[in-house]
């Protein structure tokens, strides 16, 4: 093999290919070597000393182009020399050039490249990789490792501990920025070398970033690079679930089913839990049903998650529990706890007792061990049902088996007595809790304060609050009496006056206490105390200022309670002003705040303001509740004008559309009183209506009110017709009076009656006498209109419904320019040829008599 001539500018160096080292030094090569990014640029072909294959010539020309100003590539050089030359390039950090040399040799001969890989100095190549990493060229290093791996150089042998630390630093920086996708691309390449990806960056950090940027596909790609992929997939599903992104959750779930060969119960359990987080309990049921269809037996954890997500539905939860028994899945303590929780939410004390007894039976058999959560849940069931004795019995049960009550257990016990109005018993339990060494939370304090407020022991609530707050040097909760036992009411510091109230006789406003527990008031604490202020607005304002000084922000309950306090003293403008301040303070008023303000306006007869607040609610898209509607409907004890009646009827209809049931009888009485106002003998007429009403018991009053509301809508000019079909005589009388009252008020405003008033009594068949109901309605109306109102009432004659249809067809055809022929008439008549023509029974009140009546009444 000939010597290789390396030309540097105009000088040359002759090397012996049998020697391992070149006479040209590395710094000289470093100064002369200039690499380019493309191998496609070809320099003019070099003169060759011997014949080469087309592949080798092409490779040589490519490499010659790459080393254009540094080296004249001689294709007949030895493999030893190429390895030596590549090692020197690696030492100078030119690892991409090393990869280029290896690829060129591979193109010439596969045997040579194997020898080349074995002869390259791995230590120098490792140093070159480390040098590039220190320069921040992480992408260059990874792609170079990929290239040299293809020619037989093992990448893992070239990455030492220092390089791993540098790579870890770069990948963490990329994972914490917008380059997370690029980082995963590079890690996928490293994973192909069996590189330990988990060492580069915390997997949970990468998953969190993928969740933050809402890219489930990227997160799944990363999860597939790590061992225990299913655990990371669960993390991905849960992450998107906490974010409420159900679309990404389902994307990850479908990917899991494709990636994993066998069903994974942990995946199914996580998916069901996430359905609960997103409020999509229906989807959790579909997942469970799909498992059963595929003959996959869920484990206890999947079944428990399913029952927990559907705990609001007692029937479905019990169905799952029974199916669990059919599938021979043994229930554990968590199963019974979830069942108790479901009974608690449903208020089923009886069923909860049965489940509790079953759990105790299994405990006695050694199959289960009841925990504190079990006892706490059953205590809460009894607490909500105000069964405080049963709750205390459960406490004895748990202490007898060695289970120590925790903070939540004590809180439920105190709540049981507080809900029953037993303030002293609740206070005794609080003392017992402190004596046992259990640290109370804010909920325990708030429950005791709430018990005092509900029992109207307002002063006691404030004294307790002051004693708990502690002095400036943070003296804490319970006093130490001479026996050394802690008690919040020490006998030598609190004096009982015999009326259930206790007075602090200590010179300090705070009870001297040990420094074990500290009371930290919450917003809920101040909300409870605000209810104890009664109508003392200034005291309530001081409490709000105090809570702000502690860094507590008033919530909607705080503002609503303050509005109620201000309104309780009769200050309507002040209450509405607080509602406006609530807006400016950044707290959006809710339905409770508006309803409280509306109630205050109604109680103080500011009805115009009350209805304006109601319209404001609707503008802000705040849905009224039952209390809001009921407050407005009961705001008036009587109606004075048609506008007021229309206003309340509109609210009534809106209330029914919203799904609430109004007090129909109360509204009916007011409308009756307003309608009967058109008659001089008002008291006599009301007695008649009341007497006749007894004959219509059982009919829904809402039908009558809706009928009145329909007829009292804004009428079109000249349209005076009352449809009384299907109404009783009492209801018909009321509707007619309502329309007459409307006509009267419209007349006072200047609207003149331009047509007769038609009253439709009913529909019957020709040649058949009307029924008794229609005759009774007709007699009552004739008596009302003629005898009591002195109006002229004439029979309007029987008009066939068929004639009305024909008239409508004629009008329609006339509009379209079509001539009505005898054939058209026959086709119309043929519509109901097999039935007798229907007729309308009508009365007519003449226009002239209406004018006289209106003028007489004016």
TrEMBL record:
InterPro entries (alphabetical): Mito_RNA-Proc/Resp, PPR_rpt, PROP1-like_PPR_dom, TPR-like_helical_dom_sf
Claim: Repeat is one of the keywords in the record: yes
PPR repeats: 264-298, 332-362, 371-405, 406-440, 555-589, 590-624, 625-662
GO MF annotation, one: mRNA binding
Every PROP1-like PPR domain range: 311-467
Keywords from the UniProt entry: Repeat
Entry similarity comment: Belongs to the PPR family. P subfamily.
Annotated protein name in UniProt: PROP1-like PPR domain-containing protein
Organism: Eutrema salsugineum
